[in-house]
From TrEMBL:
Keywords: Membrane, Signal, Transmembrane, Transmembrane helix
Protein name: PhoD-like phosphatase metallophosphatase domain-containing protein
Stretch forming the signal peptide: 1-26
Residues annotated as transmembrane: 421-450
Lineage of producing organism: Eukaryota, Viridiplantae, Streptophyta, Embryophyta, Tracheophyta
InterPro entries to which the protein is assigned, alphabetical: Metallo-depent_PP-like (IPR029052), PhoD-like_MPP (IPR018946), PhoD-like_sf (IPR038607)
Native organism: Arabis alpina (Alpine rock-cress)
Length: 455
């Protein structure tokens, strides 16, 4: 042990971790107090966010998907021979890359100096989402999945003899920390077995469900972090439709119910979800699913973000629209940088656990490129314990919406669809103004011509 103490801190960490995994006897694993995570990292763009992540000094970093952008995105074209957009499109907007191209992109991501530094100081684990699975919005039908699983596990330096390389999908679980202070991290694969969107079929597939049940029934851990590439709690599609829809567990209502029921049935306490995918940060909470509040901390993206799509002077509009779109699950508090309590610039997730506090507290945060918290909430571990029954703690009274309990789809229509109404109304007014303008111009020209004739 004395010899080990001479090694730098990270090596000591690695030695303990490898011991934990190769020799599965009870081993004192280091106490985990800082975990960070992130998603949506365009390997070809600058990635200044790593500096802030390194400054947070996490012991563990979890990739939440779109770790690279592996597929090829064609420009939006509504006219011409190759139309990639609109109901009349005749050509896909996204196409998969070759294996060689995927390798090049992973190599680029892996060689980023900021990320390399993180890898030397922290354990890095993770899952994937659609763009590193290999194709936008793809699921089980995607035929590059076997090859791409190998490339993804290479990127994560998964040992060659790891069972994870022999299974169908990249789901995995890890346990850290000493007895009575254990943190279990489960990363799900929401791509490999996923049925088509709008099928209300399965996200995880039978084998992964069986595995997840064993993991949740298995050894006790004080905190269990479940990583899902797509959001679990927020169902923004319910309030942004029919304008646009996003991928989420909400789009697979039966599968989502099954997940909550499994957490209840296995009596697993201390579960916290983390997610990515949507290009903005958000913390949501659902109190009526299991016997205690379920949090979902969404960090997206490390690079890609909704606000960057707009020129700087117009970015306030994005925040205004976020604020205007109703949400029943979003955590709204004084810790938010913006009133909407979403964050649409590059960000990462930061979880800090204070094991010495009484009760033990967990700080859930979204931090910006400078490392400042832009969203945050403190949760005490004692809140995350089921109290007897599985039934909702306070079922909402009919007709009244209750924060953290009412589903978005149960909102009254006037509230639920107010974003769509606003957008359609604006488009109608603009269209009418345009038609009015044309009519005006035509009338003026005719009047002039008529006048000239008379003269
Ligand atoms: C990634 O970044 C590069 C360079 O800025 C850009 O050309 C490319 O379109 C980006 N890809 C995506 C998927 O945004
Ligand atoms: C989420 O919203 C979609 C779109 O409105 C809806 O079809 C689905 O049932 C919702 N899911 C849940 C769990 O409310
Ligand atoms: C949350 O916890 C942190 C320490 O982890 C503390 O500094 C902060 O004041 C707490 N915030 C609130 C709102 O309780």
């Amino acid at each position: 042990m004395n010899l080990l103490l001479l090694l730098p801190r990270f090596s000591l960490w690695w030695v303990s971790i490898s011991l934990l995994f190769t020799v599965t006897i009870a081993q004192d694993s280091p106490l985990i107090t800082r975990i960070s995570f992130g998603s949506c990292a365009n390997q070809s763009a600058p990635q200044p966010i790593w500096e802030a992540i390194n400054k947070f000094d996490p012991q563990l970093f979890i990739w939440m998907g779109d770790n690279i952008y592996g597929d090829i995105r064609k420009p939006i074209k509504v006219i011409g021979k190759e139309r990639t957009f609109g109901p009349w499109r005749n050509s896909p907007r996204f196409i998969p890359s070759s294996e060689e191209e995927m390798k090049l992109r992973y190599a680029k991501a892996k060689s980023n100096p900021g990320y390399s530094r993180l890898k030397r100081n922290a354990k890095v684990i993770g899952t994937w989402d659609d763009h590193d699975f290999g194709l936008n919005d793809a699921g089980k039908e995607f035929d590059h999945k076997v090859t791409n699983q190998r490339l993804m596990l290479d990127f994560l330096d998964e040992p060659l003899d790891s069972p994870r390389r022999k299974q169908a999908g990249v789901y995995a679980s890890y346990t850290f920390g000493p007895t009575n202070r254990k943190v279990k991290v489960i990363v799900l694969d929401t791509r490999y077995h996923r049925d088509p969107l709008r099928s209300d079929g399965s996200i995880l597939g039978d084998t992964q469900w069986t595995w997840l049940e064993e993991e949740l029934r298995g050894q006790r851990s004080e905190i269990t972090i479940i990583g899902s590439s797509v959001q679990v709690i927020s169902n923004l599609s319910a309030t942004t439709g029919p304008l646009f829809y996003m991928e989420s567990w909400g789009r697979f209502p039966k599968e989502r119910k099954r997940l909550f029921k499994l957490i209840s049935d296995t009596k697993r306490n201390g579960v916290i979800f983390i997610s990515g995918d949507v290009h903005f940060g958000e913390i949501t909470r659902y109190d009526c699913a299991v016997g205690y509040p379920l949090y979902d901390v969404t960090s997206s993206g490390l690079v890609q973000s909704v606000e960057k799509v707009f020129p700087r002077p117009l970015r306030f509009i994005v925040r205004l629209l976020f604020w205007y779109t109703p949400s029943t699950m979003r955590v709204i508090n004084d810790n938010c940088k913006f009133k909407a309590c979403t964050y649409g610039q590059s960000n990462f997730g930061a979880i800090s656990i204070d094991w010495n506090a009484n009760p033990i507290t967990i700080r859930l945060e979204i931090r910006d490129v400078n490392g400042f918290a832009v969203l945050g909430t403190n949760v005490s571990l004692s809140e995350l314990q089921a109290r007897g029954s599985n039934s909702p703690t306070n079922p909402p009274t009919k007709g009244k919406s209750q924060r953290y309990c009412t589903l978005e789809v149960e909102l009254p229509g006037t509230k639920r669809y107010r974003l769509a109404v606003l957008i359609y109304f604006t488009i109608a007014v603009l269209a009418m103004a345009f038609v009015g303008l044309i009519i005006g111009v035509v009338l003026m020209i005719t009047a002039c011509v008529y006048k000239n004739k008379l003269d």
